[in-house]
Amino acid sequence: MSDSNEERAPKRDATHADGGHLTETQLTLLTLIGSGQPQSAYQIAKLVDEGFGIVGCSKSNVYAQLKLLADRGYLASERVPGRSAEKTVYVVNRRGQQAVEAWAATPMEAPDTGRSEPLLRLLAARFVRYEAVRRGFESLECELEYRREDIEQTIRRAQRAKSYDWLTEAECELHRDVVWVYQRWVEKIMMRLTPGERPHGSAQQTEPTYRSNLRVTTE
Asked: N or C: at which end does the chain have fewer Cβ atoms within 10 angstroms?
């Protein structure tokens, strides 16, 4: 994530009593590292790539942010044996722990449910053919089912791990429940977009027609 992107989310940033300012990316990295075993920069970048809260953050930026956090005294590094050679792993030190604890106590905003591609696609149904929108939702339906199965497998693996606890369980439940809610919602949308399947009394029973505010211009 570039500096400009980080500046667009100031409410997630934090300034601490020691005068240090941490961005959303840096707080996320500290939390990922502190909540697990010491990890190398490669392992941490892989976690970020799997979607742990840092949208658009490149691998090179993860490496740069880790070095910056270590230089500023929020992370400690140590050399440990690797498969073929020694590698550097990072651990959160006392200062890093205090920074995350201060951030964790700040007020939390509710997730923004008004900004999502499915809602934007649904908005398009006001002036394009239902069939086109339905095709997009069919792919989402398949993706959600694939994700649900993947989450169930992850839960089963996590339950077999010695480190499984109520925190891990809560994390798994959130991912599973969010997908479940999305699946139920998509089922309703698919019904309304399918001819002959719309429930009686739904707000719009017919395909939309082109309105006068649509213009085609030629130059």
From this structure: C
Sheet with 39-40: strands ordered across: 39-40, 86-92, 75-81
Q: What does the alpha-carbon distance between residue 136 and residue 122 come to, in Å, rounded to a whole number?
A: 10
Of 57 and 46, more confident? 46
Six token digits for residue 62? 């993860």
Residue 86 pairs with which residues in a beta bridge?
81
The four Cα atoms 48, 49, 51, 52 give a dihedral, to 10 degrees, of: -10
Q: What is the C-alpha end-to-end distance of the chain, expressed in Å?
A: 40
- Tokens, residue 96: 């890093």
Q: Tens digits of per-residue pLDDT, 126-176?
A: 889 999 999 999 999 999 999 999 889 888 888 888 778 888 888 889 989
pTM of the model: 0.65
Q: Please state whether 100 falls in left (phi above 0), alpha (psi between -120 and 50) or beta.
A: alpha
Determine the distance from the C-alpha atom of residue 193 to the mean position of all C-alpha atoms in its chain, rounded to a whole number. Answer: 28
DSSP calls for 30-88: HHHHHTSS-EEHHHHHHHHHTTSS-TT--HHHHHHHHHHHHHTTSEEEEEEE-SSSEEE
**Torsion angle defined by CA atoms of residues 51, 52, 53 and 56, in that order, rounded to the nearest 10 degrees:** -40
